[in-house]
Amino acid sequence: MMDPIIHNIDPVFGTIGGVYLWWYGLTYTLGFLGSLIWLRANRTSLAIDMNGVYTLSIYLAVGVLVGGRLVEVMFYEWAYYGSHLWHIPAVWLGGMSTHGILFGAIVGTLLYCRLQRRSFFEIADVMVVAGAFIMGVGRIGNFIDGQIVGATTDLWWGVKFPDLEGFRHPVVLYDGLKNLLLVPLLILIRNMKPPRGVVTAHFILWYGFLRIFVDFFREYRTSLQGFPPGQEFNILMTLVGAGLLFWFYRKAGNGPAEDKASALPGDPVVTQRDSTWGKKIVFIFLLALPTVIPSDWTQDAPSRYGKRHPGMTHSAMYPVIQAPNSE
């Protein structure tokens, strides 16, 4: 008989100026860095230089952070933030939505394509691989933080989380594994050189469809008219992804996207190296910023982690808040 799995991981790895640093937020840092490396490796096929790589990475990171925060606030925790508007930008109090991360990444990519006059799906077919990676490692951070849990279970891999009764499905690990498995799937599809937009459509379809089943094991703290809020997004993504696949394959007679590698103006690393220093500084800031963000729904961080980190209960940066209960 296997020993029970007890969650006893400290989600905090340090402090700076009274603000706590979280393993969860650090996973976003790793995700953004991984996306930069992925873009750099694919810059020839995208016909962008290193200046463009940093520009697109910045748009992606800002979109992820802003989108993840706003959707969390508006759809999951408005019962609290609606009467505490001044806490919305206080990201160190917690709250990032994975559906908002997707939405923000799309908006960031759209803005980049709009300003650079590039095809959205040409860029998105590459970016969705990085997006799946970011959300995969982010789910590992969720597990470390111990905030998002599943329903009670008697299965041997059930986890005993702090301050909760019974053993729970490690639902974020299910979702994280699903996201990371999308990475090789999307790369395989991309290597088959399908029509432009097909890789993006596959990502939207399989992310939403597979998460429908994952979320059956999740315990939500809120609902939208009696329906788990995440499931509505999952069903919508599934329908959108399927519709896009049908649309792009219907236009498949136009053939796959053209190879623009020949459009590169010489060696992008050499010709643009000196023009990226300012964007490197911005990107480094965006790598550091997520480390102050705890996991989903941690307005009540002091009450949950105050025993282990008493500084939270005596800091004006972390007001002790009773989060609203589910209806």
Element layout with pairings:
Blueprint: E1 5-6, E2 12-16, E3 19-22, H1 23-41, H2 43-46, H3 50-76, H4 78-81, H5 98-116, H6 120-145, E4 159-160, H7 171-191, H8 198-214, H9 229-250, H10 268-272, H11 277-288, H12 301-305
Parallel strand pairs: 1-4
Antiparallel strand pairs: 2-3
Helix pairs in contact: 1-3, 1-6, 3-5, 3-11, 5-6, 6-7, 6-8, 7-8, 8-9
Q: How would you characterize the overall build of this protein?
A:
- With 327 residues, the protein is mainly alpha-helical.
- It has one domain (18-314).
- Helices cover 55% and strands 4% of the residues.
- It is built from 12 helices and 4 strands; from the N terminus they run βββααααααβαααααα.
Largest sheet, in brief, is:
2 strands, parallel
Q: What would you call the quaternary organization? A: single chain
**Helical proportion, percent range:** 55-70%
Q: Which stretches are low in confidence, meaning pLDDT under 50 for 5 or more residues running?
A: 256-273, 323-327
Structural class: mainly alpha
Rounded average pLDDT: 83
Total helical elements: 12
* Radius of gyration of CA atoms, rounded to a whole number: 21 Å
What share of the residues does DSSP label as strand, in percent? under 5%
How many strand units? 4
Distance between the termini: 38 Å
Strand order of the largest sheet: 1-4
List SSEs in N-to-C order. EEEHHHHHHEHHHHHH
Choose one word for the global shape: globular
- Tally of distinct domains: 1
